[in-house]
């Protein structure tokens, strides 16, 4: 499987079953048609250490705070999904520094009509911007974000509602009534749960990624 978009984001793509998929972007679940190869966990399935701090979380429509960038189920840094890329990118660069890398291309290379997508990384945080069509020059808006769980969140990031980042799937369900398991149609042991505030945690045995925005399928 070869994709230029994967070379700069290896840490943030779960090792899911890859049968029948030409590209897997962060937050994209590949098709599992046919036998699935054994999956491995990029985070070694090791529970993360407790979060050390979290700031009060404003709603995505509120003005971003000057402290932590809040990771919410319906937005990022105070911006709701659908906000123009330039607006979000300018704010994130001012608060997180310059991106560590970026990639761009069709959301799913198997579908020439899929939207043009740009993924920008700030260390273990990736931010996804998407156009309404497959044209590279079309304006893009904030569509999703993801964070690979590797120890406590840095002080410049915070999960909405002070959700701990080191809980197991069982603990998340117990702490947040109404949490639901998402059916991704995979047979490799991947588990995904969505909290009432729309945060999504997924991984093989323990949560390895937390994200906001829908999980797409490339098939």
Write the layout of secondary structure elements.
Layout (H helix, E strand, L loop, with lengths): L27 E3 L38 E4 L2 E2 L2 E2 L4 H12 L4 E6 L9 E7 L2 E7 L8 E9 L8 E3 L9 H7 L4 E2 L9 E4 L5 E4 L5 E4 L3 E3 L1
Description:
The chain is mainly β. Helix content is 9%, strand content 27%. It has an 8-stranded antiparallel β-sheet, covered by helices on one side.
Outline of the structure:
This protein has 219 residues and is mainly beta.
Principal-axis shape equals globular
Count of individual helical segments = 2
Approximately how much beta-strand content do the residues carry?
Answer: 25-35%
Overall mean pLDDT stands at 77
Give the strand order, joined by hyphens, for the main sheet.
5-6-7-8-13-12-11-10
Poorly predicted residue ranges: 1-24, 29-65
Percentage of residues assigned to helices:
under 10%
Number of strands: 14
Radius of gyration: 16 Å
One letter per element, helices H and strands E, the order comes to: EEEEHEEEEEHEEEEE
State the end-to-end CA separation: 14 Å
Output the structural class: mainly beta
Largest sheet: 8 strands, antiparallel
- How many domains would you count in the coordinates? 1
List descriptors.
219 residues, eight-stranded antiparallel beta sheet, 27% strand, globular, disordered N terminus, single chain, mainly beta, four-stranded mixed beta sheet, 2 helices
């Amino acid at each position: 499987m070869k994709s230029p978009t994967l070379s700069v984001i290896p840490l943030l793509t779960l090792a899911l079953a890859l049968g029948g998929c030409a590209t897997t972007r962060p937050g994209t679940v590949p098709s599992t048609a046919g036998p699935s190869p054994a999956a491995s966990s990029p985070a070694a399935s090791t529970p993360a250490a407790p979060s050390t701090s979290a700031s009060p979380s404003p709603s995505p429509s509120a003005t971003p705070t000057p402290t932590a960038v809040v990771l919410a189920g319906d937005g990022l840094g105070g911006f709701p999904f659908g906000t123009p890329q330039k607006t979000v990118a300018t704010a994130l660069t001012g608060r997180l520094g310059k991106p560590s890398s970026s990639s761009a291309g069709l959301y799913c290379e198997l579908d020439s009509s899929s939207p043009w997508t740009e993924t920008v990384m700030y260390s273990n945080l990736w931010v996804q911007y998407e156009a309404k069509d497959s044209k590279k020059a079309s304006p893009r808006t904030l569509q999703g974000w993801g964070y690979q769980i590797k120890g406590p969140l840095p002080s410049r990031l915070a999960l909405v509602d002070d959700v701990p980042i080191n809980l197991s799937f069982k603990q998340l369900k117990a702490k947040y009534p109404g949490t639901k398991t998402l059916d991704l149609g995979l047979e490799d042991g991947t588990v995904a749960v969505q909290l009432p505030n729309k945060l999504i945690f997924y991984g093989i045995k323990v949560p390895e990624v937390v994200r906001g925005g829908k999980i797409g399928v490339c098939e």
